[in-house]
Amino acid sequence: MSDNKRIAKNTIFLYFRMILIMGVSLFTSRVILDKLGVVDYGLYNVVGGVVGMLSFLNGTLSNGTSRFLTYELGADNKEKLQKTFSTAFYTHLLLSVIILLIMETGGMWFLFNKLNVPADRLEACVWVFQLSILTTIISITQVPYSAIIMAHEHMSIYAYVSIFEAVAKLIVCYLIAIADSDRLIIYAILIFLVQMIVALYYRYYCSSHFVESKLSCNFDRGIFKSMMTFSGWNIMANLTETLKHQGVLVLINMFFSPVIVAAQAIANQVITAMMQFVNNFRTAINPQIIKLYAVGDKDASKRLTLSTTVYCFDLVLLLGLPALFVMDELLHLWLVDVPEYAVVFTQFMVVGQIVGTFSAAFYVPMLAANKIKSNSIAAVFFGIGQFVVLYVLLKLGFDVMWVQYLYLFMVVVFALIVKPYILYKEIDYTLKELLACYWSCSKVLLLSLTFSIPAGLYLSDDIAGSILKIIVTGSCVLLSSYLFLDQVSKQKLLHFVKGKIKKR
Description:
- With 504 residues, this protein is mainly alpha-helical.
- It folds into two domains: 3-429, no CATH class; 430-504, no CATH class.
- Helix content is 87%, strand content 0%.
- The chain has 16 helices and no strands.
- Helix 2 (38-52) crosses helix 5 (122-152), helix 10 packs parallel to helix 14 (431-458) and helix 10 runs antiparallel to helix 15 (463-483).
- The mean pLDDT is 79.
């Protein structure tokens, strides 16, 4: 199978998975928020967020494991591939033990002494905390198995498992709705059970299809050292992401009510659903970028990175721009009870994700080249700096909206200045290439805004007006994207559309 066909096939499977999960997630979130209530929903997210603050360690090794497995598979080194998998598993097992110890000591202290938890909900929060720890341990030891599936590009398995997850979450919703006892505790238990079943199936699938996934006592110190050296820098980048999400939830809880936490959690969920469209495309593309680099075709890897960055930006804009103008209507249509600040929080984060497209896309070539030191140093500076500054501002009594102001400022600087500078200095991307990429995206953005802003401002806010806003703004993005495509891409797209029309 050619690389282009493989990318297309994997993208289709991943989008099927995404649409299914997103649809079910949005429905179940509505039910869970209604049945748990805003306070318990906020508590579930913030308590889980305490455990999630250590997820950057898992994310660190996850990126490293995926990179090394994909690299060895691309180089067709089967013996080293098997050694890499076993070494990665035992490394993650050790990490899970470390996190368990930290959470059962420092984490429990933080829960009882620092979080803003109503006295009558403390027992339920302890249950949530313990089950979050168990879920995290399962996720950590699952990483090598997910990475080897990605490396082999068996994306269809994710679509199949998603069917089970969708059905399971619907069952969870039903059980929560009819439950007579503490719904927060029951919800935490059921979600844990679903995640455990999924993890066990992935392990069964890997052991049945990939020889290298069968564990042995083959722990290679050289591979471990390479992973740790790689992850030592990568850990900083992942710390940034953790502080921007779980860390912010904890800070909001420390200074404001669980209702505000719920607003931020809802904004995070909307953004997660939106970015699944782009992330699934990246998931199908990224192995090809790394494999091209592994076989020495660096120019092809570079071209694929830059072209897909433009496509990813257009896709995020297609989703984000209409959402900005109808966010209030969308959230009220989706949720029974929309928490205060949920709308404006989500709007700020949508803008941040549009800009952050470049940050995510430009990280992959750094990963392929194993040159992430500078990125990681910059990430820790911005991430910890944002966290500390935000803590000081909230401590001084500043409004909660400063959470979003600071977030957007950091995203803009990091994505538009820091990341491209690193590519230019360390991975031989030319200034001309980077500016061309930015200019391609800017043209689409400016033309889309020119026609979308009047529609967004002057059309009515009722159902008919909202639908019209989505159609107009979405059409503007699509038309702008098409107009600025290169001739080869235009011809391919027209040929594809004509072929579909003829078939019909």
